[in-house]
Amino acid sequence: MLTSRVPAAVDSLLAILRAAPALEGVRVVDGPEPVNQTERHRIYIGWQGGEGGPAVSLLQDFNGAGARTRDEDFTISCYAETRGGDKDMAVRRTRAFELVAAVETALRATDAAPEAPTLNGTVLWAHLTTGDLTQDQTTNGALAGVAFTVSCRARI
After folding, report:
1. How far apart are CA 19 and CA 106, in angstroms?
2. Model-level pTM?
């Protein structure tokens, strides 16, 4: 018996984003890893930048009388980051939201990917729900990032 759909959902989200045509040339990262200053565009799954914080937050409850199945609601922490050697924050900010838009598009059903909103059948539904923009000027240029969550509901 499954105790959670979280591991399968995270794996499926990674696979969907790594295959998304709109994210070609963007590194999709599983959790935190050291920052590579030469990579300009990254999307982290299971990490929202900074130190600490949950990769996934979840809540479970019985979905009805009889206690045979449970509903699981969870949010996957994500972070889209873009950096450049220039100081043009508007360009970085616009690109960060383009990355988030590509994630949102990848999670929508299409003829080619009808199971995308269910993370290929691992959840009942998944969608982008919250976001926070951060901006910074570093010695290496402008950096903009959007911390966002992908919210899911599953039945276990």
Report:
1. 9
2. 0.91
